[in-house]
Amino acid sequence: MVAKSMNVSNVLVLVIAAAVFTLHGTEAAQYTVGDELGWTIPPGGAATYASWAAKHSLVVSDILTFNFAVGEQDLALVTKEDFDACNTAEPLFVFQEPGDFIFESEGMYYLTCTFAGHCTKGQKIALYFAPSGGSPSPSPAASQSADDAAAHATAVKFVSKKQHGLKKLLPVMM
Known about the structure:
This protein is α+β, with helices and mostly antiparallel strands. Helices cover 26% and strands 23% of the residues. The protein has a five-stranded mixed β-sheet, with no helix packed on it. Strands 2-8-7-4-5 form a five-stranded mixed β-sheet. 26% of the residues are buried.
């Protein structure tokens, strides 16, 4: 009788845990890229942000905060080819101010800084966003054509920190 009671309790705990996990999966998570380091030239080079990305399972609608000093850093969305070559001459978008960003489409996103030398010193990150249902992250080496990159560029929205609670989306300006 005691064993049967314990089994029912264990099953009940498992059901509650599964429900919490399922409900949590529908909410957007918020992350600060680089954690305490923020968005800057990392002391450990490119491996710093690659390691950060590998530790986070991102899904569509998650919110990423990029913290950096205005005028000393920026955030640029680039193609895979430009990311690999640290070519920042023609980024898809450049964000001059820190803030929160919502990625509304599944896929790979390549981000860097356009300030001279920053990308080659490791200030770049490749991020994969899985669909809301979740799926395993591919390697950051996954291929992406320029057309795919342009399509993903329209799926990134800057959300002002002051207006984040209202979810007011601001237009992206080059």
